[in-house]
Amino acid sequence: MTPFIAQGTTLGEHQELTSFIAPGATLGVMGGGQLARMFVHAAQQMGYATAVLDADANSPAGCVSHHHIQADYLDDAGLAQLAACCAAVTTEFENVPAAALKRLAATRPVAPSAEAVEVCQDRAAEKAHFARCGVACAPHALIAEASQLADVSDHLLPGILKTTRMGYDGKGQARVNNPAELSAAWHAMQRAGAVTSCVVEKLLPLKYEVSVIVARGANGSVVHLPVQQNLHVDGILAVTQVPAPNLTAEVQTHAIAAAEKLAASLNYVGVLCVEFFVLQDGSLVANEMAPRPHNSGHYSIDACDVSQFDLQVRALAAAPLVAPRLHSAAVMLNLLGGLWFARGASAVEPAWEKVLGLPGAHLHLYGKTQARAGRKMGHLTFTAATPALARCAALQACDVLGLPSF
Protein backbone atom coordinates (compact mmCIF):
# COMPACT_ATOMS: atom_id res chain seq x y z
CA MET A 1 0.00 0.00 0.00
CA THR A 2 1.51 3.35 -0.98
CA PRO A 3 1.82 5.80 1.91
CA PHE A 4 -0.13 9.02 1.44
CA ILE A 5 1.46 12.44 1.18
CA ALA A 6 -0.64 15.54 1.74
CA GLN A 7 -0.22 18.21 -0.90
CA GLY A 8 2.78 20.46 -0.23
CA THR A 9 4.28 18.16 2.39
CA THR A 10 7.40 16.01 2.15
CA LEU A 11 6.99 12.49 3.51
CA GLY A 12 9.03 11.95 6.67
CA GLU A 13 8.63 15.41 8.13
CA HIS A 14 7.22 15.49 11.67
CA GLN A 15 4.72 18.32 11.66
CA GLU A 16 4.66 20.45 14.83
CA LEU A 17 2.10 22.81 16.33
CA THR A 18 4.08 26.00 15.90
CA SER A 19 1.34 28.62 15.57
CA PHE A 20 -2.26 29.24 16.55
CA ILE A 21 -4.90 27.56 14.39
CA ALA A 22 -7.75 30.06 14.13
CA PRO A 23 -11.46 29.17 14.28
CA GLY A 24 -12.79 28.34 10.84
CA ALA A 25 -10.13 25.69 10.31
CA THR A 26 -10.98 21.99 10.49
CA LEU A 27 -9.77 19.89 13.41
CA GLY A 28 -9.70 16.11 13.05
CA VAL A 29 -10.18 13.29 15.52
CA MET A 30 -9.36 9.61 15.22
CA GLY A 31 -12.30 7.67 16.63
CA GLY A 32 -16.01 8.34 16.67
CA GLY A 33 -17.18 7.45 20.18
CA GLN A 34 -18.54 9.63 22.97
CA LEU A 35 -15.19 11.28 23.74
CA ALA A 36 -14.83 12.36 20.13
CA ARG A 37 -18.45 13.53 20.16
CA MET A 38 -17.79 15.83 23.12
CA PHE A 39 -14.58 17.07 21.49
CA VAL A 40 -16.59 17.86 18.34
CA HIS A 41 -19.16 19.81 20.36
CA ALA A 42 -16.43 21.84 22.07
CA ALA A 43 -14.62 22.55 18.80
CA GLN A 44 -17.79 23.60 17.02
CA GLN A 45 -18.72 25.92 19.88
CA MET A 46 -15.39 27.70 19.34
CA GLY A 47 -16.03 28.03 15.62
CA TYR A 48 -14.00 25.13 14.24
CA ALA A 49 -15.17 22.64 11.67
CA THR A 50 -14.51 19.00 12.53
CA ALA A 51 -13.68 15.75 10.78
CA VAL A 52 -14.08 12.32 12.36
CA LEU A 53 -12.44 9.12 11.10
CA ASP A 54 -14.39 6.06 12.24
CA ALA A 55 -15.59 2.95 10.41
CA ASP A 56 -19.04 3.00 12.06
CA ALA A 57 -21.62 4.79 9.91
CA ASN A 58 -23.61 5.58 13.07
CA SER A 59 -20.73 6.60 15.31
CA PRO A 60 -21.74 9.13 18.01
CA ALA A 61 -19.15 11.67 16.83
CA GLY A 62 -19.62 11.06 13.12
CA CYS A 63 -23.30 11.88 13.44
CA VAL A 64 -22.59 15.41 14.73
CA SER A 65 -19.39 16.28 12.85
CA HIS A 66 -19.09 18.39 9.71
CA HIS A 67 -17.20 15.52 8.05
CA HIS A 68 -17.31 11.80 8.77
CA ILE A 69 -14.69 9.70 7.02
CA GLN A 70 -15.99 6.15 7.24
CA ALA A 71 -12.77 4.13 7.22
CA ASP A 72 -10.60 1.87 9.33
CA TYR A 73 -7.89 3.53 11.42
CA LEU A 74 -5.14 2.09 9.21
CA ASP A 75 -6.84 2.72 5.86
CA ASP A 76 -4.45 4.81 3.76
CA ALA A 77 -7.19 6.43 1.70
CA GLY A 78 -9.11 7.41 4.83
CA LEU A 79 -6.01 8.80 6.52
CA ALA A 80 -5.15 10.77 3.39
CA GLN A 81 -8.66 12.23 3.31
CA LEU A 82 -8.43 13.21 6.99
CA ALA A 83 -5.02 14.82 6.50
CA ALA A 84 -6.19 16.69 3.41
CA CYS A 85 -9.08 18.42 5.18
CA CYS A 86 -7.62 19.04 8.65
CA ALA A 87 -5.20 21.55 10.11
CA ALA A 88 -4.37 19.21 13.02
CA VAL A 89 -5.53 15.84 14.36
CA THR A 90 -6.10 14.33 17.81
CA THR A 91 -7.32 10.96 19.08
CA GLU A 92 -10.17 10.00 21.37
CA PHE A 93 -8.87 6.62 22.46
CA GLU A 94 -5.51 5.12 23.39
CA ASN A 95 -6.16 1.97 21.36
CA VAL A 96 -6.13 3.85 18.04
CA PRO A 97 -3.04 2.32 16.38
CA ALA A 98 0.09 4.39 16.93
CA ALA A 99 1.08 3.50 13.36
CA ALA A 100 -1.89 5.51 12.07
CA LEU A 101 -0.89 8.51 14.18
CA LYS A 102 2.67 8.28 12.86
CA ARG A 103 1.41 8.32 9.27
CA LEU A 104 -0.70 11.39 9.97
CA ALA A 105 2.16 13.12 11.78
CA ALA A 106 4.21 13.07 8.58
CA THR A 107 1.71 15.45 7.02
CA ARG A 108 -0.20 17.21 9.79
CA PRO A 109 0.37 18.12 13.44
CA VAL A 110 -0.91 15.30 15.67
CA ALA A 111 -1.47 15.76 19.40
CA PRO A 112 -0.82 13.77 21.46
CA SER A 113 2.10 12.24 19.58
CA ALA A 114 2.19 8.62 18.51
CA GLU A 115 5.21 8.13 20.77
CA ALA A 116 3.30 9.33 23.85
CA VAL A 117 0.26 7.22 22.96
CA GLU A 118 2.48 4.15 22.51
CA VAL A 119 3.66 4.40 26.11
CA CYS A 120 0.06 4.50 27.34
CA GLN A 121 -0.93 1.56 25.12
CA ASP A 122 1.40 -0.88 26.88
CA ARG A 123 1.24 -1.44 30.64
CA ALA A 124 4.85 -2.59 30.81
CA ALA A 125 6.09 0.51 28.96
CA GLU A 126 3.81 2.66 31.10
CA LYS A 127 5.19 1.26 34.36
CA ALA A 128 8.74 1.67 33.09
CA HIS A 129 7.91 5.31 32.37
CA PHE A 130 6.53 5.74 35.90
CA ALA A 131 9.82 4.38 37.25
CA ARG A 132 11.91 6.71 35.07
CA CYS A 133 9.92 9.66 36.39
CA GLY A 134 10.18 8.57 40.02
CA VAL A 135 6.40 8.06 40.28
CA ALA A 136 5.49 5.10 42.47
CA CYS A 137 3.34 2.32 41.01
CA ALA A 138 2.22 -1.08 42.30
CA PRO A 139 4.91 -3.77 42.65
CA HIS A 140 4.61 -5.92 39.56
CA ALA A 141 6.18 -8.47 37.24
CA LEU A 142 6.01 -8.93 33.48
CA ILE A 143 4.98 -12.37 32.22
CA ALA A 144 5.71 -12.68 28.51
CA GLU A 145 5.89 -16.47 28.35
CA ALA A 146 4.78 -19.45 30.43
CA SER A 147 8.25 -20.14 31.81
CA GLN A 148 8.15 -16.81 33.68
CA LEU A 149 5.13 -17.84 35.76
CA ALA A 150 7.35 -19.75 38.17
CA ASP A 151 9.53 -16.67 38.67
CA VAL A 152 6.71 -14.54 40.09
CA SER A 153 7.43 -13.76 43.73
CA ASP A 154 4.91 -14.82 46.36
CA HIS A 155 5.17 -11.20 47.53
CA LEU A 156 3.07 -10.16 44.49
CA LEU A 157 0.15 -12.40 45.44
CA PRO A 158 -2.74 -11.88 45.86
CA GLY A 159 -2.61 -9.73 42.77
CA ILE A 160 -4.30 -8.59 39.59
CA LEU A 161 -3.23 -10.12 36.27
CA LYS A 162 -3.64 -7.66 33.39
CA THR A 163 -2.96 -7.88 29.69
CA THR A 164 -0.27 -5.40 28.72
CA ARG A 165 -2.32 -4.12 25.78
CA MET A 166 -5.96 -3.44 24.87
CA GLY A 167 -7.24 -3.50 28.43
CA TYR A 168 -9.64 -0.86 29.78
CA ASP A 169 -12.79 -0.66 31.94
CA GLY A 170 -11.75 -3.83 33.74
CA LYS A 171 -11.33 -5.83 30.53
CA GLY A 172 -8.35 -8.15 30.23
CA GLN A 173 -7.98 -8.47 34.01
CA ALA A 174 -8.30 -11.25 36.58
CA ARG A 175 -7.77 -11.41 40.32
CA VAL A 176 -5.36 -14.19 41.32
CA ASN A 177 -4.71 -15.34 44.87
CA ASN A 178 -2.00 -17.97 44.46
CA PRO A 179 0.41 -19.39 41.86
CA ALA A 180 -2.13 -21.94 40.61
CA GLU A 181 -4.73 -19.24 39.93
CA LEU A 182 -2.08 -17.06 38.29
CA SER A 183 -1.09 -19.85 35.91
CA ALA A 184 -4.71 -20.69 35.08
CA ALA A 185 -5.61 -17.03 34.44
CA TRP A 186 -2.52 -16.42 32.30
CA HIS A 187 -3.21 -19.46 30.11
CA ALA A 188 -6.89 -18.48 29.83
CA MET A 189 -5.87 -15.04 28.55
CA GLN A 190 -3.59 -16.67 25.98
CA ARG A 191 -6.44 -18.85 24.74
CA ALA A 192 -8.89 -15.94 24.63
CA GLY A 193 -7.06 -13.94 21.99
CA ALA A 194 -3.88 -12.40 20.66
CA VAL A 195 -2.34 -11.79 24.09
CA THR A 196 1.44 -11.96 24.07
CA SER A 197 2.27 -10.67 27.54
CA CYS A 198 0.69 -9.76 30.86
CA VAL A 199 1.58 -7.89 34.01
CA VAL A 200 0.75 -9.15 37.49
CA GLU A 201 0.36 -6.35 40.04
CA LYS A 202 0.35 -6.78 43.79
CA LEU A 203 -3.09 -6.17 45.31
CA LEU A 204 -2.71 -3.09 47.49
CA PRO A 205 -4.71 -1.91 50.55
CA LEU A 206 -6.81 0.68 48.74
CA LYS A 207 -8.44 3.55 50.62
CA TYR A 208 -9.85 5.47 47.65
CA GLU A 209 -9.05 6.41 44.05
CA VAL A 210 -8.37 9.78 42.46
CA SER A 211 -7.49 11.06 39.02
CA VAL A 212 -5.73 14.15 37.75
CA ILE A 213 -6.46 15.57 34.30
CA VAL A 214 -3.80 17.89 32.91
CA ALA A 215 -3.62 19.77 29.63
CA ARG A 216 -0.23 20.63 28.19
CA GLY A 217 0.48 22.91 25.25
CA ALA A 218 3.18 22.65 22.60
CA ASN A 219 4.94 25.56 24.34
CA GLY A 220 5.16 23.59 27.60
CA SER A 221 2.38 25.45 29.41
CA VAL A 222 0.32 23.18 31.65
CA VAL A 223 -2.97 23.47 33.55
CA HIS A 224 -5.04 20.95 35.47
CA LEU A 225 -8.60 20.25 36.51
CA PRO A 226 -9.45 19.80 40.20
CA VAL A 227 -8.44 16.40 41.55
CA GLN A 228 -11.37 14.00 41.19
CA GLN A 229 -12.31 11.18 43.56
CA ASN A 230 -13.62 8.11 41.76
CA LEU A 231 -15.57 4.99 42.60
CA HIS A 232 -15.32 1.99 40.28
CA VAL A 233 -17.73 -0.95 40.10
CA ASP A 234 -16.56 -4.09 38.28
CA GLY A 235 -13.63 -2.14 36.86
CA ILE A 236 -15.80 0.60 35.30
CA LEU A 237 -16.07 4.13 36.66
CA ALA A 238 -19.41 4.57 38.43
CA VAL A 239 -19.17 7.84 40.38
CA THR A 240 -16.90 10.90 40.36
CA GLN A 241 -17.04 13.54 43.10
CA VAL A 242 -15.50 17.01 42.99
CA PRO A 243 -14.21 18.37 45.31
CA ALA A 244 -12.78 14.99 46.28
CA PRO A 245 -14.32 14.29 49.72
CA ASN A 246 -11.40 12.33 51.24
CA LEU A 247 -8.53 14.17 49.58
CA THR A 248 -5.80 15.64 51.79
CA ALA A 249 -3.76 18.67 50.80
CA GLU A 250 -0.60 16.53 50.75
CA VAL A 251 -2.07 13.90 48.39
CA GLN A 252 -3.51 16.63 46.16
CA THR A 253 -0.14 18.36 45.79
CA HIS A 254 1.67 15.07 45.18
CA ALA A 255 -0.87 13.86 42.58
CA ILE A 256 -0.86 17.08 40.56
CA ALA A 257 2.94 17.26 40.59
CA ALA A 258 3.23 13.62 39.46
CA ALA A 259 0.73 14.08 36.62
CA GLU A 260 2.47 17.23 35.38
CA LYS A 261 5.87 15.50 35.57
CA LEU A 262 4.61 12.52 33.55
CA ALA A 263 3.16 14.84 30.90
CA ALA A 264 6.35 16.90 30.62
CA SER A 265 8.56 13.82 30.38
CA LEU A 266 6.50 12.59 27.41
CA ASN A 267 6.74 16.03 25.78
CA TYR A 268 2.98 15.65 25.81
CA VAL A 269 0.60 17.93 23.92
CA GLY A 270 -3.09 17.56 24.69
CA VAL A 271 -5.18 16.26 27.58
CA LEU A 272 -3.75 13.49 29.77
CA CYS A 273 -5.45 11.70 32.66
CA VAL A 274 -3.44 9.93 35.35
CA GLU A 275 -5.33 7.60 37.69
CA PHE A 276 -3.98 7.00 41.19
CA PHE A 277 -4.63 4.72 44.15
CA VAL A 278 -4.52 6.27 47.61
CA LEU A 279 -3.55 3.54 50.06
CA GLN A 280 -4.63 3.05 53.67
CA ASP A 281 -1.40 4.63 54.90
CA GLY A 282 -2.05 7.73 52.76
CA SER A 283 0.61 6.99 50.16
CA LEU A 284 -0.05 7.63 46.47
CA VAL A 285 0.45 5.01 43.75
CA ALA A 286 -0.01 5.58 40.02
CA ASN A 287 -2.36 3.11 38.34
CA GLU A 288 -2.48 4.09 34.66
CA MET A 289 -2.51 6.94 32.16
CA ALA A 290 -5.06 7.76 29.48
CA PRO A 291 -3.76 9.96 26.61
CA ARG A 292 -7.10 11.72 26.13
CA PRO A 293 -10.01 13.25 28.03
CA HIS A 294 -11.35 10.87 30.66
CA ASN A 295 -14.70 9.70 31.98
CA SER A 296 -13.80 11.15 35.39
CA GLY A 297 -13.53 14.62 33.84
CA HIS A 298 -16.98 14.76 32.27
CA TYR A 299 -18.31 16.81 35.19
CA SER A 300 -16.12 19.69 33.95
CA ILE A 301 -18.60 20.39 31.13
CA ASP A 302 -21.15 21.59 33.69
CA ALA A 303 -19.11 22.43 36.80
CA CYS A 304 -16.09 24.28 35.37
CA ASP A 305 -15.75 27.40 33.26
CA VAL A 306 -13.38 25.47 30.95
CA SER A 307 -14.02 21.76 30.34
CA GLN A 308 -11.53 19.01 29.57
CA PHE A 309 -12.80 19.05 25.98
CA ASP A 310 -12.29 22.80 25.70
CA LEU A 311 -8.71 22.18 26.81
CA GLN A 312 -8.30 19.41 24.23
CA VAL A 313 -9.40 21.81 21.49
CA ARG A 314 -7.16 24.59 22.79
CA ALA A 315 -4.10 22.33 22.98
CA LEU A 316 -4.69 21.00 19.46
CA ALA A 317 -5.14 24.51 18.07
CA ALA A 318 -2.09 25.89 19.95
CA ALA A 319 -4.45 28.29 21.73
CA PRO A 320 -3.68 29.65 25.20
CA LEU A 321 -4.42 27.21 28.02
CA VAL A 322 -6.27 28.73 30.96
CA ALA A 323 -6.65 27.05 34.33
CA PRO A 324 -10.20 25.74 34.76
CA ARG A 325 -12.22 27.21 37.62
CA LEU A 326 -14.62 24.94 39.51
CA HIS A 327 -17.74 27.07 39.95
CA SER A 328 -19.95 24.32 41.40
CA ALA A 329 -19.53 21.18 43.43
CA ALA A 330 -20.34 18.17 41.27
CA VAL A 331 -21.16 14.48 41.29
CA MET A 332 -21.05 12.53 38.03
CA LEU A 333 -22.89 9.22 37.57
CA ASN A 334 -21.92 6.94 34.70
CA LEU A 335 -24.90 5.55 32.75
CA LEU A 336 -24.24 2.05 31.42
CA GLY A 337 -26.39 0.04 29.05
CA GLY A 338 -27.67 -2.32 31.73
CA LEU A 339 -29.76 0.57 33.05
CA TRP A 340 -32.04 0.18 30.01
CA PHE A 341 -32.72 -3.46 31.00
CA ALA A 342 -33.43 -2.89 34.69
CA ARG A 343 -37.06 -4.03 34.23
CA GLY A 344 -36.47 -7.10 32.08
CA ALA A 345 -35.09 -8.49 28.86
CA SER A 346 -36.44 -5.70 26.63
CA ALA A 347 -34.80 -2.29 26.58
CA VAL A 348 -36.87 0.40 28.32
CA GLU A 349 -35.91 4.07 28.46
CA PRO A 350 -34.98 5.08 32.03
CA ALA A 351 -37.11 7.56 33.98
CA TRP A 352 -35.44 10.68 32.65
CA GLU A 353 -38.40 12.94 33.47
CA LYS A 354 -38.03 12.19 37.18
CA VAL A 355 -34.27 12.57 37.03
CA LEU A 356 -34.47 15.90 35.23
CA GLY A 357 -36.77 17.16 37.98
CA LEU A 358 -33.95 16.91 40.50
CA PRO A 359 -31.96 20.06 41.34
CA GLY A 360 -28.78 20.60 39.36
CA ALA A 361 -29.32 17.69 36.97
CA HIS A 362 -27.44 17.71 33.65
CA LEU A 363 -28.17 14.71 31.40
CA HIS A 364 -25.70 13.80 28.64
CA LEU A 365 -26.63 10.93 26.31
CA TYR A 366 -24.15 9.92 23.65
CA GLY A 367 -26.37 9.10 20.69
CA LYS A 368 -25.64 5.38 20.69
CA THR A 369 -28.26 3.41 18.81
CA GLN A 370 -28.28 0.27 20.95
CA ALA A 371 -27.94 -0.26 24.69
CA ARG A 372 -26.09 -3.28 26.04
CA ALA A 373 -24.66 -4.25 29.39
CA GLY A 374 -21.43 -2.44 30.22
CA ARG A 375 -21.72 0.00 27.31
CA LYS A 376 -21.30 3.66 28.21
CA MET A 377 -24.53 5.29 27.08
CA GLY A 378 -24.23 8.63 28.84
CA HIS A 379 -23.63 10.36 32.14
CA LEU A 380 -25.48 12.49 34.66
CA THR A 381 -23.81 15.40 36.41
CA PHE A 382 -25.32 17.09 39.44
CA THR A 383 -24.05 20.55 40.29
CA ALA A 384 -24.76 22.47 43.48
CA ALA A 385 -23.42 25.17 45.77
CA THR A 386 -22.01 22.57 48.17
CA PRO A 387 -20.73 18.99 47.86
CA ALA A 388 -23.44 17.80 50.24
CA LEU A 389 -26.23 19.19 48.04
CA ALA A 390 -24.72 17.71 44.87
CA ARG A 391 -24.37 14.31 46.56
CA CYS A 392 -27.94 14.47 47.88
CA ALA A 393 -29.38 15.04 44.39
CA ALA A 394 -27.15 12.33 42.90
CA LEU A 395 -28.31 9.83 45.54
CA GLN A 396 -31.93 10.66 44.70
CA ALA A 397 -31.13 9.91 41.05
CA CYS A 398 -29.57 6.60 42.06
CA ASP A 399 -32.80 5.73 43.86
CA VAL A 400 -34.92 6.67 40.82
CA LEU A 401 -32.74 4.74 38.38
CA GLY A 402 -31.98 1.75 40.57
CA LEU A 403 -28.26 2.51 40.73
CA PRO A 404 -26.25 1.52 43.83
CA SER A 405 -25.70 4.14 46.49
CA PHE A 406 -22.24 5.53 47.22
Written overview of the protein:
With 406 residues, this protein is an alpha+beta fold. It folds into 3 domains: 26-110, 3-Layer(aba) Sandwich (Rossmann fold); 139-202, 2-Layer Sandwich (Dna Ligase, domain 1), CATH 3.30.1490; 206-401, D-amino Acid Aminotransferase, Chain A, domain 1. Helices cover 28% and strands 25% of the residues. The protein has 11 helices and 17 strands. The strands form 3 sheets. Strands 9, 10, 11, 12, 13, 14, 15, 16 and 17 form a 9-stranded antiparallel beta sheet that branches. A 4-stranded parallel beta sheet has the order 3-2-1-4, with helices on both faces. Strands 5-8-6-7 form a 4-stranded antiparallel beta sheet, covered by helices on one side. The longest helix is centred in the middle third of the chain and has 17 residues, at 249-265. The radius of gyration is 21 Å and the shape is globular.
Key features of this structure:
406 residues, alpha+beta, Rossmann fold, Dna Ligase, domain 1, D-amino Acid Aminotransferase, Chain A, domain 1, 3 domains, 9-stranded antiparallel sheet, 4-stranded parallel sheet, 11 helices, 28% helix, 25% strand, disordered N terminus
